[in-house]
Amino acid sequence: MITLQDLRKVYQTRSGEVVALDGISLEIPQGQIHGIVGQSGAGKSTLIRCLTALERPTTGSVIVDGAEVSALSEALLRQARRRIGMVFQHVNLFEARTAAANIAYPLAIAGVPRAQRAIRVQELLDLVGLGDRGDAYPAQLSGGQKQRVGIARALATEPAVLLCDEPTSALDSTTTRQILRLIRDVRDRLGITVVIITHETSVVREVCDAATLLADGRIVESGPLADVVTRPGSPLSQALVPVPDVGVGDQRALVQVSAGGAQAQIAHALHAIATEPDAHVVAGSIETLGGVRVGRWHLDVADGDRVAVLSRLRAAGLAIEDDAA
Ligand SMILES: Nc1ncnc2c1ncn2[C@@H]1O[C@H](COP(=O)(O)OP(=O)(O)OP(=O)(O)O)[C@@H](O)[C@H]1O
């Protein structure tokens, strides 16, 4: 549904060139919820602006729903943009219009007749769980409800792709979870492809099927969560399934080990750790992410036996992530 080919974006500034995106190639299949994560300045906003053709890439191409948006004329671009819905951190609703009128706005622009508009708006209000709040003005809605209106408005013209730019950054954790659940629900019902730009790995954990980690305009890592979290040495896996903090005063040279896959593999790893006389667990966690089980542990390994212990753990299927010694 979305193909990025060797995308490069260079800004000319007074102090010289800024390479915001550098050789980005990515495929996002239809119906996937794909998280783009990265720290401030990684290039996330530039990427989303290239996807909507608000920004033209310096080189490379952006293909959304079969149309090369990076090469379209303005007239064709307007049509293509209707196939892309946008959800922002700050919803920017018209304060003087009701929720229903806000959702109707893109339909009016698209020339949908008034009677049809009313039916579609009610469908959309129902879809986002605001079936009886169509007459409310934005000031009468909570932050989460405003975001629901924002999502309904983005879906009004039946886009094939929903681009969400930090959709929950302004919301508390409970509302965040509800909005992410709504996004997943919308994907399940409509089969829409969703891209979520976020700096919060918790958003990826909660809702994404796949993720891409950006740093300095480049892809550090990308893939379905089930693949990423079981990849030894994966920075995304480290960010998504962090090992619990080791208490202060317990800062000896620790070894981080991990295992991933089915429950049997975790059980095998736990057994190997528990029966290893020269290593003990200082901190650890086991979680299910992307449908697979992932375990990560900090082990205190007796100094003299390190090589033998690590080779036994490796033989038992554990990955040695980080040997601090
Ligand atoms: N219009 C612009 N002109 C010049 N440089 C820009 C412009 N927009 C972005 N940049 C630069 O491009 C790089 C990537 O910026 P971008 O805003 O895409 O990152 P980001 O990951 O979205 O960051 P944040 O999470 O802070 O929004 C940064 O170095 C930024 O300073």
List the helices and strands and how they pair.
Blueprint lengths: L1 E12 L2 E13 L4 E5 L6 H8 L7 E6 L2 E2 L5 H8 L2 E5 L10 H11 L4 H14 L15 H13 L5 E5 L7 H18 L2 E6 L2 H7 L2 E6 L2 E7 H4 L6 H6 L13 E8 L1 H12 L4 E11 L2 E10 L4 H10 L3 E5 L2
Parallel strand pairs: 3-8, 3-9, 6-7, 7-8
Antiparallel strand pairs: 1-2, 1-4, 4-5, 9-10, 11-13, 11-14, 12-13
Helix pairs in contact: 3-4, 3-5, 4-5, 5-6
The structure holds adenosine-5'-triphosphate.
Overview of this protein structure:
Helices cover 34% and strands 31% of the residues. It has helices at 44-51, 74-81, 99-109, 114-127, 143-155, 173-190, 201-207, 225-228, 235-240, 263-274, 306-315; strands spanning 2-13, 16-28, 33-37, 59-64, 67-68, 84-88, 161-165, 193-198, 210-215, 218-224, 254-261, 279-289, 292-301, 319-323. The strands form 3 sheets. A 6-stranded mixed β-sheet has the order 6-7-8-3-9-10, sandwiched between helices. Strands 2-1-4-5 form a 4-stranded antiparallel β-sheet. Strands 12-13-11-14 form a 4-stranded antiparallel β-sheet, with helices on one face. Helix 3 (99-109) packs parallel to helix 5 and helix 4 packs across helix 5. It starts with a strand and ends with a strand. Bound molecules: adenosine-5'-triphosphate. Adenosine-5'-triphosphate (ATP) is lined by residues 11, 13, 18, 20, 38, 40-46, 199.
